[in-house]
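name: query_chain
kind: protein
chains: 1
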Amino acid sequence: MAEKTIYPFRVEPQEVDFTMCATVPALGCAVLNVAGIDAHGKGFGVDVLNERNCSWVLSRMAFEVDRRPKQYTDYRIATWISDYGRVLSTRNFTLTDCAGEEFGRAVTQWAMIDLERRTALDLSGVGRAHAEAMVPEPAPAEKPRKIAPFEVQQSVTHRVAYSDIDFNRHMNTMRYIDLMFDCLPIELHASQRGMRLDIHFLHECRYGQLLTVGWSREADRWLFSIRNEEQEAVRAAVEWR
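structure:
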């Protein structure tokens, strides 16, 4: 029977902000890196899929952070796949400090796409290795919540540049989160409050496209909508606790 896999990390200086604590995007980046490392080590990483002109793409993510660890803090990320269907595979994560106290958790849902057609594929094509990696343990948090359309109150623009794109030749997941967190008041980043991020990726954004990052506030909940020239690409919510 498959088991959770645990990876060690340390908060490095380039990952902290002016509070000397890891940023939420930095922690999210570590989480997504673990997804790639673990899939690669178990035989169904992007290197294997690329041989068939396929790749993994993140479809939805829920990420909860209770507190942000300080610079040079050692921590661990555990990951496991709890279930998958025809279109989406659910990969989970917990973040714990050296004392074993959990301070973060994530639930991610991944799709496999044809790199030429840019369309989703049936996950039965992933192979036996993916099925054997399943761990019979539930997700550590509520799965990504649905985010209803909303009226944008403010917005900024951003053109997708070289530093924004990843190996799938579309905008990197964490760059979307960076753009959204740049729109939040600096006082929120200084507050050290816990938060939950729900993000849905509706359409990909490619190099050179002009994006509009729009947002609206409902008390301690901030709603985001990122659009390219053609359609809404990302919808997200950040709730501060």
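note: The chain has two domains: 1-144, 145-241.
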